[in-house]
Amino acid sequence: MQMQVIKNANVINEQGQLELKHIVIAGGLIEAVVSELADLPQDSRAQIIDAEGKLVTPGFIDMHVHLREPGYEHKETIETGSRSAVKGGFTTIACMPNTRPVTDTPETVKLILDKAREANLAKVLPYAAITKNELGRELTDFEALKEAGAIGFTDDGVGVQNAQMMKDAMRKAKVLGMPVIAHCEDDSLVKGACVTEGKFAERHGLKGIPNESEAIHVGRDILLTEATGVHYHVCHVSTEQSVRLIRQAKAIGISVTAEVCPHHLVLSDEDIPGLDANWKMNPPLRSPRDVEACIEGLLDGTLDMIVTDHAPHSAEEKAKGMELAPFGIVGFETAFPLLYTKFVATGKWDLSLLVRRMTSDPARVFGLDSGVLKAGAAADLTMIDLNAEKEVNPDTFATKGRNTPFTGWKLKGWPVMTWVDGEVKWSEQGGF
């Protein structure tokens, strides 16, 4: 593999400040990060890439995505999802098991890994289901799924309703040294509901999803985590009550971590313009109070990381309207620009905090050998133009999904080049 030198790159140093550096890539690894051009290896065959002062970060890591394959290839495939990921600056993505068939057998896990290798874009880490067919009735074969390459267990898309089933799952996962990742939702409180309980639901005569539907499972599972000692990770936190419970659990040393999505940091139910299902996701957009609680939780570390919950659907499915359309929005290609524009460019957050929550923090929580920019690390990198402003246009997305509430938003901070193991997988100039 040809040596590459990325010169004149702005990187975030250990003090959280921007510093101009030159990065040497060789053999798929970062060989050196130096301050002076004179310190670079003298290799006439090296490919020189001039970053021209653009930001270079570790590749983004997204621990909650939906690639839809197998079974829903009309929505997305592992290849199209991976294309969208690298275009958005993501180099490692973890895909959820609510496919058809459900990812509940070693064969399906291996299929996903094989498809990811064929795509040869982002690194794809598959989760396996906690229960067979995600029906909540019988545990899957955790040992065989781990052996096949699953990185954790979750019934994402539905909550595990039976507490004994969840406790048994946690015990098995603990023995295997594996995390349990939970979609927290009490079904008895949400049947027939499509948006959060609140003014928007009342105004449109819709049944609302109450905050406690999420928080009840968070509280239950924290107690089960305390009893079993497993690493428990809460999916897509959206409510003030959930943030409060997770903060309290962490304070007394319970092994809980958590994630939050860009849309739950940027939008509330008060922003929904009408009955457009591109604003329908699960968890739903909550109240401004919940948004502020999630922001505070991310800033103080209660919420460990940012994930997209990238959830593509076809235009025909989303055209069914707020009540009948499936939940979910796409997220890979807007995540960083959205949060950079909303919080960093306005001076509310430090750039280093946003980058950590999308790189080193998810790597730390899930024990991944990535998320850092230093000699010896995998050359998974993202170059970002912090100044160029573009309008969100779903017609330009690499994902099959066009379901986003951010159409027309003008954002800054767009990725322009992505490396995985030292190979450029996408660039603004050269494409894929």
Report on this structure.
This protein has helices at 78-87, 106-119, 142-148, 163-176, 199-204, 211-228, 240-251, 262-266, 288-300, 315-318, 335-344, 351-358, 360-366; strands spanning 4-12, 18-26, 29-34, 47-50, 55-58, 60-65, 90-95, 123-126, 180-182, 195-196, 208-209, 232-234, 256-260, 305-306, 381-391, 410-420, 423-427. The model has no long low-confidence stretch (mean pLDDT 97). It has 432 residues and is of the alpha/beta class. InterPro entries: Amidohydro_3, DHOase, DHOase/Allantoinase_Hydrolase, DHOase_cat, Dihydroorotase_CS, Metal-dep_hydrolase_composite, Metal_Hydrolase. It is an enzyme of class 3 (hydrolase). Residues 351-424 form the Amidohydrolase domain.
Judging from the principal axes of the Cα atoms, what is the shape? globular
Instruction: Walk across the major sheet and give the strand order.
Output: 3-2-1-4
Q: What is the helical fraction, as a range of percent?
A: 25-40%
Question: pLDDT average, as an integer?
Answer: 97
Structural class: alpha/beta
CATH class of the largest domain: Alpha Beta
Count of helix runs: 13
- Low-confidence parts, pLDDT < 50 over ≥5 residues? none
